[in-house]
Design goal:
Blueprint lengths: L9 H18 L1 H26 L4 E2 L2 E2 H21 L1 H13 L2 H6 L4 H7 L4 H4 L2 H15 L5 H27 L1 H4 L5 H11 L4 H5 L6 H11 L4 H11 L14 H22 L7
Antiparallel strand pairs: 1-2
Helix pairs in contact: 3-8, 3-9, 3-14, 4-9, 9-14, 9-15
């Protein structure tokens, strides 16, 4: 507690959560090591696959080899942050409801959504950031394009926007556990959603398959998962934007992130009103 206000210090709580997560991980070192190795294998497989593709073509839909590697690294950074910071907590929310432990969470003198969202940290996933940032640095070095401090600032800002947007989606879906009793589809939802975000937006614009224009519109304006990865990647690589894309397209993701936070907060509060205590 803060001596001056009597309210909890959220920064100190986050540090305490991180310390507790480290203690838990060190109790099961073998599991932690397997997690790190598995993620490294998945990273290597992804890079190898696209490296083989780019050995046969100079570019794919206007994205050169190292531009796409920077895009891929950006998507991996966003996924890693979500999986490390929020996935374990959102997935555990239904378990809190099932066991009745949500009662104890509600009694604590701290914002319930904050506690539900940040209590656990997946350090195995967070360690994957080293590989992701290394790939991004290597791609930018190979592109040999000057990167200004302003670009880096905007890039980090757009990464924050992406994490905020995806968090809003996840906490909204996790909140439905109160009405549904459990939510086993959270990981499936995250997997299917991130499939669409693995490729730049221009891939869907020029795809000669049925439904591609509808997907482009849906995942650009209604649920802009294509923009939250493509925009920061274009920003840091100085990739030439598709001539059909309006200049105001870059503000769609920030607006969606702000709206997502607002809507998800209300969904979470509404779900808590429907919660019935285990002792009731």
């Amino acid at each position: 507690m803060s001596a001056s206000t009597g309210s909890p210090s959220y920064l100190r709580l986050i540090l305490a959560f991180a310390r507790n997560s480290l203690v838990r991980e060190m109790q099961f070192r073998g599991n932690f090591l397997i997690d790190v190795v598995t993620r490294a294998f998945w990273f290597t497989a992804q890079v190898t696959m696209f490296d083989l593709i780019y050995r046969n073509v100079p570019d794919v839909n206007g994205w050169s080899r190292y531009e796409f590697f920077a895009f891929m690294a950006t998507g991996m950074i966003i996924n890693t942050l979500i999986e490390a910071l929020f996935m374990p907590n959102c997935a555990n929310f239904s378990e809190l409801i099932r066991t009745g432990n949500l009662d104890f969470v509600l009694l604590k003198p701290i914002d319930t959504q904050f506690l539900v969202s940040f209590e656990k940290l997946d350090l195995g996933a967070l360690g994957h950031l080293l590989l992701n940032t290394s790939l991004l640095g290597y791609a930018l070095w190979q592109l040999d394009r000057p990167v200004s401090a302003g670009q880096v600032f905007l890039y980090l800002g757009f990464i924050l926007v992406a994490v905020t947007f995806f968090y809003s989606l996840m906490i909204s879906l996790a909140s439905t556990s109160i009405w549904l009793g459990q939510n086993q589809g959270l990981y499936d939802f995250w997997f299917y959603i991130t499939i669409f975000a693995r490729y730049p937006r221009s891939f869907y614009r020029d795809a000669q398959i049925p439904g591609a224009p509808a997907l482009l519109f849906l995942f650009s304006y209604l649920l802009p998962i294509l923009l939250v990865v493509t925009v920061p990647a274009e920003q840091i690589t100085r990739h030439v934007r598709h001539p059909a894309d309006p200049t105001w397209l870059v503000i769609v993701a920030p607006l969606a992130a702000v709206a997502g936070l607002f809507v998800s907060r209300h969904i979470f509060k509404l779900s808590l009103k429907s919660y019935r205590s285990a002792s009731s």
